[in-house]
Amino acid sequence: MHAVYEACGFGFGLQRQLTALGIHCYVVCPQKLDERNKRVKTDGVEAKALCLKLDRFVEGNRDALALVRVPTQAEEQKRAIHRQREQLVKARKRLEAQGRSLIVNHGIEPVNKWWKRRTFAALQVPAWMKELLQNTQPILLALEEKIRALTAQLQEAAISRQPRGLGLLSSVVIDREIGNWDRFKNRRRVSSYTGLCPGEYSSGNTRVQSCVTKHGNPRLRAALVETAWRLVRFQPEYRAVKKWRHLLAKGALATGAARKKAIVAVARQLAVDLWRIRTGRVAIETLGLIN
User: If we measure between CA atoms, which residue out of 83, 95, 180, 107 comes closest to residue 139?
Assistant: First the structure.
């Protein structure tokens, strides 16, 4: 028996339960199933479209389904930690912005980190406004404490021997979002998973490359780009940095678009090189990275 469903709010628990019952269950990328463009979207129509794709897949057409890798429960539990930290950071920024908006809307100069204990005690605002801000300040302090605790927990789990500039937190996020580096057979699959490859619209003798596909893992993509900017500063001999230094160096005469393309190229190469390092294909020193 075979089953298929799109990756959604059910997560991977349903797939594991069906697999335990002896059912071959596949999880696929969410996609537009109205191939004939009828503009009809119902559960029955989508279930039929998925079943037709599943039939072709079972019969041997491996391109019929865009399969999603099902992580192990241990991998899910590990990546849930930094994802929760990310959610707490977003919540802190949102509450901080709400308080800053209240201050600015009444013609008062905003203060950075207004919710910090010393800053809040010296905050020069009317009493009624401070009373409103005081409703949010304890929440922000509690969020900051939880974020620091999760950050320390993640940094302790990082690999001790890291290239300079990679960062303990970033390395943990990248490794846990990947899950298992050995699942990639070649560098193309690594690059594709990051979503940092250029899109392409080609036909006949015409070949046009567009912006990156953004296919794959968005958290991994953000972590790689952030890390790439640090490597530009701390790893000047890294081969990807050397290749694009004329665009990324401080004071370089390059447009914003050119700098973005260059940093994306560095991030894409970084993902491939990390795959090589983590799978033992190459040593750190060979790539021009220093500890």
Answer: 95
